[in-house]
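If you are new to this repository, start here. Below is one unmodified record pulled from the training split, so you can see the exact layout before writing a loader.
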Amino acid sequence: MNADAIPVVPLSPARTDRNFHTGMAIALLLTAIAGFGPTYFYKPFHPSPPLPSLLHVHGLFFTTWLVLLIVQSGLVRAHRVDLHKRLGIFGAVLAAVMMVLGIMVAFHGVRRG
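And here is the target side for that same chain:
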């Protein structure tokens, strides 16, 4: 072995995946905040028309979904799969509510033109 050579320890695929998924979950939340910021997240500081209650409920549930995605991927990354699985039940219920809300918001949008 060359005295100048530095041993390289490659990252395991599982560790790389955990970092990737957590990073992507954070990126998705930041993208949502940037995209919906003026009309939803920092609405008190940005002039825009008022939103109907349905859109506030939609925004709350879909933001909760993104936060849950970060928490869930963080739990796997921290090797807390037991908590990840228990929290997954909440995620399944949240997903069902989101499907209904998504359809309701779509019909609301069609009615508004």
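Two things worth knowing about this chain: The radius of gyration is 20 Å. Helices lie at 13-41, 53-77, 81-112.
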